[in-house]
TrEMBL record:
<dbReference type="GO" id="GO:0003677">
    <property type="term" value="F:DNA binding"/>
</dbReference>
<feature type="transmembrane region" description="Helical">
    <location>
        <begin position="31"/>
        <end position="48"/>
    </location>
</feature>
<feature type="transmembrane region" description="Helical">
    <location>
        <begin position="55"/>
        <end position="76"/>
    </location>
</feature>
<feature type="transmembrane region" description="Helical">
    <location>
        <begin position="88"/>
        <end position="107"/>
    </location>
</feature>
<protein>
    <recommendedName>
        <fullName>HTH LytTR-type domain-containing protein</fullName>
    </recommendedName>
</protein>
<dbReference type="InterPro" id="IPR007492">
    <property type="entry name" value="LytTR_DNA-bd_dom"/>
</dbReference>
<dbReference type="Pfam" id="PF04397">
    <property type="entry name" value="LytTR"/>
</dbReference>
<keyword id="KW-1133">Transmembrane helix</keyword>
<keyword id="KW-0812">Transmembrane</keyword>
<keyword id="KW-0472">Membrane</keyword>
<feature type="domain" description="HTH LytTR-type">
    <location>
        <begin position="128"/>
        <end position="205"/>
    </location>
</feature>
Length: 212
C-alpha cells in the first residue's frame, strides 16, 4: 500500500514538473491519474507474481495489469487519448520493467520450509537464525536458508548454552563468533551480523579466536 502511494506521489510530481517546463501545465488530478494508470497496475502485478514464481502466474499477472491499466484510464478520461493499439504499445515498457524486476527477484535465494521430519536435524546444525514474522530462517554456510514456523525464543529455550541472542531479530551459535565490535559480530564463516544495543552488554561470550 505504501509502495503504491509513494510511487503515485513521485510519478505525479514528475508529471507536474515535466509538463510545467514543457509549457503544458497539468492539473494535480491528471498528474495523479497518470501515476494510477501507469504505475499501480505494474506494482500490483509484481507483488502478486513474485509470490508464485511460475511462468503462468507471471503471464496472468502482467495481462491483468495491462487490462487494469486500460480499464482505469477509460472512466477517468471518458475515452482513450489514442487508438487502443497504441495504448497497448505504450504500456509495453511497463511490462518490460516488471519482467526485469521479477527476474532480479527470482535470482535471490528463496527460503524453503523444512519438512517436519527434518526440522530437528536442522535445529542442531544451523549457524545463525533470523526472525521472519511467524517464522524463523535457519542459515548454514553455503546452504539455502530453511524456513520453519517457530520463534527465536523457542530456539533459545532448546539450547540456552549453545545459542546467543545478539539482536531482536537474530540469534547465533555462540561457538562460531570470532569477534564483537561496533559493526556487530563476525562469524567463523565470514558472515557479519548486527548487534542490538540492548543485547551488547549481555554478550559475555569469549570469541573463538581467544579460546585456548
Amino acid at each position: 500500500m505504501f509502495t503504491c502511494t509513494g510511487a503515485v506521489a513521485v510519478s505525479a510530481a514528475y508529471c507536474l514538473l515535466y509538463n510545467y517546463f514543457a509549457g503544458n501545465p497539468e492539473t494535480l488530478f491528471n498528474a495523479a491519474a497518470w501515476g494510477v494508470i501507469n504505475i499501480v497496475p505494474w506494482i500490483a502485478a509484481v507483488e502478486i507474481a513474485r509470490h508464485f514464481r511460475t511462468l503462468r502466474a507471471v503471464c496472468c499477472a502482467l495481462t491483468a495489469a495491462m487490462v487494469l491499466s486500460l480499464a482505469i484510464e477509460l472512466p477517468i478520461y471518458g475515452e482513450y487519448r489514442s487508438d487502443l493499439s497504441f495504448e497497448i504499445v505504450r504500456r509495453l515498457p511497463g511490462v518490460a520493467v516488471s519482467v526485469a524486476v521479477l527476474g532480479i527477484l527470482a535470482l535471490r535465494p528463496r527460503p524453503h520450509r523444512a519438512k517436519d521430519a527434518a526440522i530437528d536435524m536442522r535445529l542442531e546444525h544451523f549457524d545463525w537464525a533470523r526472525a521472519a514474522g511467524n517464522y524463523v530462517e535457519l542459515h548454514r554456510h553455503n546452504e539455502s536458508p530453511v524456513l520453519i514456523r517457530s520463534t527465536l525464543s523457542a530456539l533459545l529455550d532448546r539450547d540456552t548454552d549453545g545459542l546467543c541472542q545478539i539482536h531482536r531479530s537474530y540469534i547465533v551459535r555462540r561457538q562460531l563468533v570470532t569477534r564483537l565490535d561496533r559493526q556487530g559480530v563476525l562469524l567463523a564463516n565470514g558472515k557479519r551480523l548486527p548487534v542490538g544495543n540492548a543485547f551488547r552488554d549481555a554478550l559475555n561470550f569469549v570469541p573463538s579466536s581467544q579460546r585456548s
